[in-house]
Amino acid sequence: MDENPGTTQEGSDGPASAAPAFRAVLTPHRSLSPRGFLILMSFVGVISFIAGVNFLMMGAWPVMGYFGLDALAIYIAFKLNYRAGRLSETVEITTTDLTVTRTRPNGHREQFALNPYWARAHLAQRPDGANALYLRSHGKAHAIGAFLTDDERRDLAVALDRALADVRRR
């Protein structure tokens, strides 16, 4: 699972219950770096300006403003996308707890804990081939990794099953 850009995983075999037996930090993948964003927006800005000046020279001066609005709309869309990319989920398994901490883009944190002896990772397959990953315990299901790809969720489910089985053997 380490090869997937959206997840990082750490493990330790220490006997202390405070030390996590499994830890995964899940983050949405963003393929455009901040430098790439700057280059893209520079390109969009230059093209919009050149096209707007051409329309201005033809006498269609109101069109120039619409090219600026298009560039502004692209900028805002990317900024909102990057903001959504600040979402993260941390899954930690110790001998006493399975804890999921979800940090929203606005900094708000949600956390839930399950007993690792009763918790199960459940990968629900949909008819269209997509999947969803849930942590289930005592009749409750908590969705995790909704922003991951299907393959990343599948890898995470395998890793969680393995980690939970290791904790139960201790």
CATH architecture of the largest domain: Roll
Class inferred from helices and paired strands:
alpha+beta
What is the number of domains? 2
Shape assignment:
elongated
Sequence of secondary-structure elements? EEHHEEEEEEH
CATH fold descriptor of the largest domain: PH-domain like
Strand percentage: 25-35%
- For the termini, the CA-CA separation is 23 Å
For the sheet with most strands, the description reads: 5 strands, antiparallel
* CATH top-level class of the largest domain: Mainly Beta
Count of helical segments?
A: 3
The low-confidence parts are: 1-5, 10-17
Order the strands across the largest sheet as they lie in space.
Answer: 1-2-3-4-5
Cα-atom radius of gyration: 23 Å
The residue-averaged pLDDT reads 88
Strand tally is: 8
The percent range for helix content is: 40-55%
Task: Explain this structure.
18% of the residues are buried. Helix 1 (34-57) packs antiparallel against helix 2. The protein has three helices and eight strands, in the order E-E-H-H-E-E-E-E-E-E-H. It is α+β, with helices and mostly antiparallel strands and 170 residues long. The strands form two sheets. A five-stranded antiparallel β-sheet has the order 1-2-3-4-5, with helices on one face. A three-stranded antiparallel β-sheet has the order 6-7-8, covered by helices on one side. The longest helix has 24 residues, at 34-57.
